[in-house]
Amino acid sequence: MRKLFIVPILLCSGLSATELEIKDEALVVPSALENIRVTYNNEQFSVAKDDLNHSIPGYDLDAQLRSIVHNDQLAQFLQQGYISVKERSDGSFWLESHV
Questions:
Q1: Closest Cα to residue 38, out of 63, 9, 59, 64?
Q2: Distance from first CA to last CA of the chain, Å, rounded?
Q3: In Å, how far are 41, 89, 90 from 21, measured between CA atoms?
Q4: How many CB atoms lie within 10 A of CB 82?
Q5: Which residues pair with 40 in a beta bridge?
Q6: Tens of pLDDT along the chain (99 residues)?
Q7: Phi and psi angles of residue 56, each rounded to the nearest 5 degrees, phi first
Q8: How far apart are the C-alpha atoms of 87 and 72, rounded to whole Å?
């Protein structure tokens, strides 16, 4: 059984209370990206790397992730699947879902 590791980020971090961090078994990243943070805020995914926050546009999400419009939908997806993060040579990111 897959565990769900979505943790609300505290307001003191400067992020909204509705922003969720995706971590542990719900996230697969290459070893070069071990120190990133992936969040979702009911509207968009973001990747934080080296203290820079990169908003992920819809065209850099696969169809399953584009269809997520609320944190509850993300939580439901992550009970069965996970998200992988890839980085392009220009420093931009894209996300893929896996079930």
A1: 9
A2: 13
A3: 9, 25, 24
A4: 18
A5: 20, 45
A6: 444 444 433 322 344 568 889 988 899 999 888 889 999 998 899 999 988 999 999 999 999 999 999 989 999 999 999 999 999 999 999 999 999
A7: -100, 115
A8: 26
Residue with the two structure tokens 């934080």 = 48
For residue 59, give both structure tokens: 């065209």
Residues in the chain: 99
pTM of the complete model: 0.79
Q: What is the DSSP letter of 9?
A: P
Beta pairing partners, 85? 95
Among 57, 60, 93, 97, which residue's Cα sits nearest to residue 80? 97
Distance, in Å, from the CA atom of 33 to the CA atom of 16, rounded to the nearest integer, reads: 24
Tokens of residue 45, six digits = 């995914």
- Where do the structural domains in the chain lie, given as residue ranges? 18-98
